[in-house]
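How a chain folds remains the central question behind the approach discussed here. The record that follows shows the chain in one-letter code together with its fold in token form:
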Amino acid sequence: MKLSEIKTILPTLDNVAFQTPDGSFVPEHFHVTEVGSVLKHFIDCGGTIRKETVVNFQLWNADDYEHRLKPGKLLNIIRLSEEKLGIEDHEIEVEYQSGTIGKYDLDFNGSHFVLIPKTTACLASDACGIQPGKTTIQLTQLSPGEGNSCEPGGNCC
């Protein structure tokens, strides 16, 4: 989800809620302790230099159980970060601590925000010699007909 998307969604909500990948919710008394722009400047294993920028939200649970972040307040925090830090419209990455600090992509399911686990990947698989995955199909998925069958001596097998 890009920053522009959350800015469109927030005014339509009564409350801000984040669901974790296991289906539970970030406690209602969470704080957004940081909104920032993070630039990752790196070289991949194939030697290509890359830059990746995300808007980072850090969620934190405190002991102030009466705290509730309202959509308008989060929108004001976002606007302030755009004004003071020059944050642009990039994808949002959410940091949230469970066992350790996890990084998540962000989605919206129509009623609340959903933290989507991020995964690692090789960005230069062609340079590493990693073969792309093969497509697996069941033979029963093939429909009989012209061009879809193989006969002995037909050079199709």
